[in-house]
Design goal:
This protein is an alpha/beta fold. It has eleven helices and eleven strands. The chain has two domains: 93 residues, no CATH class; 207 residues. A seven-stranded mixed β-sheet has the order 1-9-8-2-5-3-4, sandwiched between helices. It has a two-stranded antiparallel sheet with strand order 6-7. A two-stranded antiparallel sheet has the order 10-11.
Length: 314
């Protein structure tokens, strides 16, 4: 009887997921029909309307106030509104990722996307060494992985799959069409990441979210925990480490910027210091966020450092 109930639940679960996948694909089909500009605008309007009603909005406001204590309430709310706008726009642009990245270094006609530091991409591709690229949830943060694939850079993008399996499935389908290697952040992912570097490949990862077992860094003047894995790999492989960010420009355009290789701090033995490396990367991210605060994901509970057995808020 229990076995029968379990099978019934499993069947119901699969049916529910199939229906949800169909629904999500339908939403994406409508977005595709609208085109990137209009679907982005619809996503932005929805997020600006619904976002402030969600609990995450309180987290965003608390985060912004803590980082910018001198800003007025109106300025704080404007940054939060901009963050919701950017998040909704990014969601609306998902079905069009392949079209959004149209950079052509040989073209005289400006496209939707420009790349600042393309020489660093090409150097990474051709130097015969493994490499590490860190990034953050800024503007449309999916574009660098597409850039790497288009320019033949052997790169594995590490991503966190959405909790909803239907959304995760459809997003994976879209990413697979436009990006190179993909690796979900899960147990055992470190072995796959290491394998990519051992083969002389490149690893791309977002480093601006809370990681419970992370190393302590200063981020925007407050203590935060960051995943140390890129620092550990930098130490092990002693390879170039670059940062890449996306800036959302007026008129539905984007700029990708790849930094030169970072000069990471080393210990007395001359090896890269893991905590110091993560602090160096985090400091670069901080500069990016301060430059375009309305394009970052403030709704995330980034600062959760235990203090005297308690977890700080937000």
């Amino acid at each position: 009887m229990a076995h029968h109930t379990q099978r019934s639940r499993s069947l119901a679960s699969r049916l529910t997921e199939s229906v949800m996948v169909g629904f999500v694909r339908g939403v994406f089909a409508v977005a595709r029909a609208l085109g990137p500009e209009r679907s982005g605008a619809v996503g932005a309007a929805l997020a600006r309307t619904i976002g402030p009603l969600l609990p995450a909005h309180k987290t965003a406001l608390a985060n912004i106030r803590a980082v910018y204590p001198d800003k007025s309430d109106a300025e704080v709310r404007a940054i939060a509104r901009g963050a919701w706008d950017n998040l909704g726009r990014t969601g609306g642009e998902y079905p069009h990722l392949g079209r959004l990245f149209d950079f052509d270094p040989d073209s005289t006609v400006p496209g939707r996307t420009e790349v600042d530091g393309i020489e660093h991409f090409l150097s990474l591709r051709d130097d015969g060494k493994p490499g590490i690229i860190f990034s953050a949830h800024l503007a449309n943060w999916e574009l660098p992985a597409i850039c790497a694939a288009r320019f033949g850079l052997d790169a594995t993008a590490v991503f966190r799959a959405p909790n909803d399996p239907a959304i995760a499935r459809v997003l994976h389908e879209i990413r697979s069409e436009t990006m190179g290697g993909l690796e979900a952040a899960r147990q055992g992912a470190a072995f796959a990441m290491q394998g990519a570097l051992e083969k002389g490949g490149h690893l791309g990862m977002l480093i601006d979210q809370h990681f419970t077992r992370g190393v302590l860094v200063n981020f925007m003047g407050r203590p935060a925990l960051v995943n140390p894995i890129l620092g550990k790999f930098a130490r092990r492989f002693d390879c170039p480490v670059h940062g890449v960010r996306v800036i959302r420009l007026p008129n539905h355009r984007f700029r990708l910027q790849l930094t030169p290789p970072l000069d990471l701090p080393r210990d007395a033995d001359g090896q890269i210091d893991v905590q110091g490396a993560m602090q160096a990367m985090t400091s670069v991210v901080e500069g990016w966020v301060r430059e375009n605060p309305e394009q970052w994901l403030w709704m995330h509970r980034r600062w959760r450092v235990p203090a005297q057995g308690k977890v700080s808020s937000p």
